[in-house]
Amino acid sequence: MAKYQTIIDWINKNIDEGKLSPGEKIPSENILCEKFGLSRQTVRHAISKLSEDGLLESRRGSGTYVADQRADGSNKSVVAVVTTYLDDYIFPSTIRGIESSLSSKGYSMQLSFTNNTTGKEKQILEDLIERNDVAGVIMEPVKSALPNPNIQLYHKLIDKGIKVLFINSYYPELDLPHVSINDEECAYRAVKALADAGHRNIGCVLKLDDGQGRERYRGYLRAMTECGLSFTYDHVNWIDTIDIKDGKRSLVRVKERLKGCSAVFCYNDQVAGMLMQVLIEDGMKLPEEMSVIGMDDSDLAKIGVSGVTISSIPHPKARLGNKAAQNMIRLIHSSGKFCNATYEFEEDVIIRDSIQELSGKNN
């Protein structure tokens, strides 16, 4: 990491936490040099980057101040927020987090849903392109692991000067910022928790059509490799959006492919819960015969299945929404191209009943 990034991160953090308010003067160059043990040139470079990003403004003969990033009263004061669903357990909290941060800066939020289909995404994007009141778009991608037919519409948005920021995932074809969890790292920690409990044969159930599934598979592979565990593709299971809608019956074949495993990492808590139901109905004892871990730390994980609560990695939900809105506002006020608006959360495992520690930690 470049030395000046330390100062950038510190000022960003203090602005996000309200310790540095709009219009407030930041510490002088001398104080920052002393605080971080860096040269004046490095400090000036950091301040220059933050000024380019619209976070700071210099006043000749006075110093450098936190910029006021509230809506300026122009007709472009709408931020469109587009997610795949509303009824998913993640989105209500995320949307509340976005709305809270946007409204505090004078921006209004327009909410739309794609139902995770490219057709609906196309309609929404075409509508946004025709409008003149949209300053930015916070978008959750549709099936982001697959080629997307609407990429050119995103280019049209950008050409109009509309800022675009993705949440939860991103399209690799577009070099645009995103706010999400670090899917690879979080999956790594989940699988590592199973390995630390003594499990050697660990399978996985991942989502094929979302980019999160791809990144979580990277984390699964990294954990298995670093822990010295061999794996077979027979234990790697891929499902898609339609499979999840179909419910637990789509996971019957997964049960067969997990033979020989004592543990399984699931794409999220919903998938973990459905799989646990299938295994229990087949007469399997959980977690004695199969340990399970999911992601998102949903209400289902806390309630559990047949009395077995689910170990999980939390999703930051409202914090992610707040961060996405904060970074969108910075994009809107930035004179730079991308404003370093990408941010990935890293969360720790919550261990519950669904993980059985093996005696002697060897199976």
What does this structure look like?
The protein has helices at 3-16, 29-36, 40-52, 91-104, 118-130, 151-159, 183-196, 211-226, 241-246, 252-257, 269-281, 299-303, 318-333; strands at 56-59, 63-66, 78-83, 108-113, 134-139, 163-167, 178-181, 202-207, 236-239, 263-266, 291-296, 311-314, 343-345. It has 363 residues and is an alpha/beta fold. It has three domains: 3-66, Arc Repressor Mutant, subunit A; 78-180 and 317-345, Rossmann fold, CATH 3.40.50.2300; 183-315 and 349-361, Rossmann fold. The strands form three sheets. It has a six-stranded parallel sheet with strand order 4-3-5-6-7-13, sandwiched between helices. A five-stranded parallel sheet has the order 9-8-10-11-12, sandwiched between helices. Strand 11 (291-296), helix 12 (299-303) and strand 12 form a beta-alpha-beta unit. Helix 2 crosses helix 3 (40-52).
Short overview:
By secondary structure, the chain is α/β, with parallel strands linked by helices. It has helices at 3-16, 29-36, 40-52, 91-104, 118-130, 151-159, 183-196, 211-226, 241-246, 252-257, 269-281, 299-303, 318-333, and strands at 56-59, 63-66, 78-83, 108-113, 134-139, 163-167, 178-181, 202-207, 236-239, 263-266, 291-296, 311-314, 343-345.
